[in-house]
Q: What sequence folds into this?
């Protein structure tokens, strides 16, 4: 066997020196061996990045969870992309992500004694997703309170309408209950609530509503603790519209009523108001009920035995205490416009049977709606109390919005 020696490459000396210099020069430009490593962030993969860590409070399987304040979803080493909280029927709880995407919380109270499933998805800085799920059950209510309201869904009402809520249990946490009533309007106007005692909460703007205003009311009292262990049940959306403006001013001394619609006087009607000693309340009142005919018995308002009329025509309620503006067929026509003879109501000339279209009472009834304003001036009585009907307009805005 013959072995051959490998041939050596021959490089001229000058070339070898130059090649070495180039190598040295290249190393000098790099600054260090780090030139062979990718820049920070380059070459890393989603699998190499720290995964997003999602936490749900309360913990999985928790029971007796409060209806507010406990549910929260957070993310570390990444951001949340989607959070769903739903009950067994699939009804979802609305909520909001924080601006940085690191947290989520509900925007409404949870329902009592309800099982919820939380599904939360997040991603890390490289876009790798993680999803977690958790289950919990809320606290049962010892008792509940119900809510009644005075405006039917879809109603058109006058510019003096107030939303009045009444509760069948005394409310000891008024701020929480008030905050659970969410009111939005188009065009936008500030609407504030005022408590009358512990069972009634009314809402209105500072001035009469603008005609055409669209109002949406979201009652979100379900799960709200109105008193220790007593939770609300109302979860409703209501919508109503403000119709044309009609404000009628009753001048007791002049025995007249000016009907002003959309800023223009459309009719002046002769009236009779409360006789001396049975004066008609002063102030602004709102029509809350319209009855073609109704019985009026003095026994129910402190005038026992003085009258009992079974068929009072064209009656519209102004106060809870029994003040009406109504037709009057039993007084002589000469009384209207010249004399105050009623027991505190405002009377308009009418005929028995409520069918005579020629009478002032018929006209006013047909041209009025729930929520219209009747303001009484020049009476010797006191200003009507702000809770005697929808009479909160007799309070200043500062008093209406004062902390209670």
A:
């Amino acid at each position: 066997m013959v072995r051959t020696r490998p041939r050596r490459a021959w490089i001229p000396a000058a070339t070898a020196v130059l090649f070495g210099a180039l190598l040295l020069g290249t190393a000098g430009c790099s600054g260090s061996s780090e030139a062979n490593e990718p820049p920070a962030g380059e070459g890393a993969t989603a699998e190499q990045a720290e995964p997003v860590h999602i936490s749900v409070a309360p913990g999985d399987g928790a029971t007796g969870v409060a209806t507010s304040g406990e549910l929260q979803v957070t993310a570390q080493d990444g951001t949340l992309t989607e959070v769903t909280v739903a009950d067994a029927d699939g009804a979802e709880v609305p909520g909001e992500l924080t601006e940085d995407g690191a947290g989520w919380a509900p925007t409404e109270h949870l329902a009592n004694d309800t099982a919820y499933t939380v599904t939360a998805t997040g991603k890390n800085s490289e876009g790798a997703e993680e999803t977690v799920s958790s289950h919990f059950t809320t606290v049962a209510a010892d008792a509940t309170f119900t809510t009644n309201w005075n405006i039917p869904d879809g109603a058109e009402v006058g510019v003096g309408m107030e939303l009045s809520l009444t509760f069948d249990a005394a409310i000891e946490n008024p701020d929480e209950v008030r905050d659970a009533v969410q009111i939005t309007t188009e065009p936008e106007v500030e609407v504030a609530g005022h408590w009358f005692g512990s069972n009634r909460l009314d809402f209105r703007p500072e001035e009469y509503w603008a005609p055409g205003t669209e109002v949406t009311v979201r009652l979100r009292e379900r799960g709200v603790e109105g008193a220790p262990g007593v939770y609300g049940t109302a979860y409703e959306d209501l919508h109503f519209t403000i119709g044309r403006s009609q404000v009628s001013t009753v001048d007791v001394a002049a025995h007249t009523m000016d009907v002003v619609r959309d800023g223009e006087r459309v009719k002046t009607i002769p009236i009779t108001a409360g006789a001396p000693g049975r004066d008609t309340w002063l102030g602004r009142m709102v029509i809350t009920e319209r009855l073609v005919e109704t019985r009026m018995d003095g026994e129910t308002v402190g005038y026992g035995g003085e009258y009992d009329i079974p068929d009072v025509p064209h009656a519209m309620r102004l106060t809870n205490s029994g003040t009406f503006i109504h037709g009057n067929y039993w007084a002589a026509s000469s009384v209207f416009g010249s004399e105050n003879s009623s027991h505190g109501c405002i009377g308009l000339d009418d005929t028995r049977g409520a069918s005579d279209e020629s009478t002032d009472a018929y006209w006013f009834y047909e041209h009025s709606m729930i929520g219209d304003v009747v303001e009484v001036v020049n009476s010797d009585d006191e200003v009507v109390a702000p809770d005697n009907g929808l009479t909160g307009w007799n309070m200043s805005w500062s008093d209406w919005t004062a902390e209670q």
